[in-house]
Backbone:
């Protein structure tokens, strides 16, 4: 096993460990423990969960316990309050696990504990203490190690099937943007725009990637402020306004993260004013500069420096956030960050082939001045990257219309 680990333990309840979804395609609410050794995989689960784990075919052996004590809130008889639904004497996962552990020679035990990445920090203090009690404090001190190096790589480096799903996520996201450009018009509020996008998601049987599936995307009229906030029904799209949308789709467990910037043309305008176009062009140019240089082997801060300098060279303020981040099971999926802080381990991380990144060097200005967020998703390949979203290459100009459907300028939305 990687890193010289003899056993890797996943111990969770109440859907507390995000690694369960990645490794075992489960996020059970009940208390459950999975143990991976060099050649076997074990699941310790209550009688309510055990049949499903057996049916999955993922485990060499499923060890069934009578119930799940901590979820039902007692260590004696579960009764009808038990989540597993069993009216039986509670078994003890720790007793069964300790028996297995003592039958093996374990010199290095990997646990999902991390001080830097929440996605690799799924073991709660309470469950850690149960493990420590079962094995003994001295034994735990002798064998424990963090699983971060293994788990972070498994999460970040995508398999061909994961890449296929993420391509589909990006395709669906840009298709919904294209549908929006045909429908959005002056007189709509930020929430009206959100309703269009949510309706397009429902047509496809999908939801957004952040929080509840019914949560709106980030929809920001520049005049209403560019902070992370909910769409405001009192913010109305008027001719001459800029609108920024940051939108993520969840499909088959994976996500996209794509942002677009548009402008509502006035009745007498063929194009947006030059300051508005210059702002969007600066963001497009910065994304292009990152696309040109990003490749496996670079460090996160090295990529950040390219996009950040491009924005500064265009005469706009320094970016207040990172130039990019990994995308996968979550919109912000941990691992290497394309940020400038060299003291942070995530920014010093080395990029690897088959990682997926969202690139978003942005123009953010105060006081209602033009702002632009243009964000696209890329897959790292040998020697460079490959776009998996259709790139925005110019400001989206929405023709003046006050009702019904119409045609959209849609500039720059169709580049493969």
Residues:
């Amino acid at each position: 096993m990687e890193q010289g680990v003899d056993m890797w333990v996943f111990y969770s309840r109440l859907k507390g460990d995000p690694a369960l979804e990645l490794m075992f395609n489960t996020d059970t609410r009940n208390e459950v423990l999975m143990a991976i050794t060099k050649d076997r995989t074990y699941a310790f689960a209550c009688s309510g969960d055990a049949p499903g784990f057996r049916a999955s075919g993922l485990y060499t052996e499923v060890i069934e316990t009578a119930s799940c004590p901590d979820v039902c809130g007692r260590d004696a008889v579960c009764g009808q309050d038990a989540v597993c639904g069993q009216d039986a004497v509670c078994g003890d996962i720790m007793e069964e696990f300790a028996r297995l552990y003592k039958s093996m020679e374990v010199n290095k035990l990997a646990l999902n504990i991390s001080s830097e990445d929440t996605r690799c920090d799924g073991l709660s203090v309470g469950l850690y203490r149960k493990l420590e009690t079962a094995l003994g404090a001295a034994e735990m001190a002798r064998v424990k190690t963090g699983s971060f190096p293994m788990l972070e790589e498994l999460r970040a480096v995508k398999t061909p099937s994961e890449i296929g799903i993420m391509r589909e996520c990006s395709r669906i996201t840009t298709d919904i943007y294209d549908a929006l450009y045909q429908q959005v018009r002056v007189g709509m509020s930020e929430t009206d725009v959100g309703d269009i996008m949510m309706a397009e998601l429902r047509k496809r049987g999908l939801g957004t990637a952040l929080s509840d599936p019914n949560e709106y995307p980030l929809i920001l009229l520049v005049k209403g402020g560019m902070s992370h906030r909910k769409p405001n029904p009192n913010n109305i799209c008027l001719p001459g306004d800029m609108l920024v949308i940051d939108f993520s789709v969840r499909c088959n467990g994976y996500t996209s993260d794509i942002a677009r910037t548009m402008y509502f043309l006035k009745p007498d305008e063929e194009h947006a004013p030059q300051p508005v176009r210059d702002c969007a062009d600066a963001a497009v140019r910065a994304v292009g500069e990152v696309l040109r240089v990003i490749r496996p082997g670079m460090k996160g801060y090295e990529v950040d420096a390219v996009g950040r300098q491009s924005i500064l060279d265009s005469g706009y303020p320094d970016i207040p956030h990172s130039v990019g981040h990994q995308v996968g099971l979550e919109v912000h999926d941990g691992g290497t960050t394309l940020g400038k802080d060299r003291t942070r381990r995530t920014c010093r991380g080395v990029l690897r082939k088959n990682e997926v990144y969202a690139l978003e060097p942005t123009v953010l200005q105060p006081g209602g001045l033009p702002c632009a967020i243009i964000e696209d998703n890329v897959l790292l390949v040998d020697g460079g990257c490959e776009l998996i979203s259709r790139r925005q290459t110019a400001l989206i100009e929405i023709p003046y219309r006050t009702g019904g459907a119409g045609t959209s300028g849609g500039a720059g939305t169709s580049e493969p």
Notes: Confidence is low (pLDDT under 50) at residues 69-90, 405-414. The radius of gyration is 25 Å. The domain at 2-154 is CATH 3.40.350.10 (Creatine Amidinohydrolase; Chain A, domain 1). DSSP finds twelve helices and 18 strands in the chain.
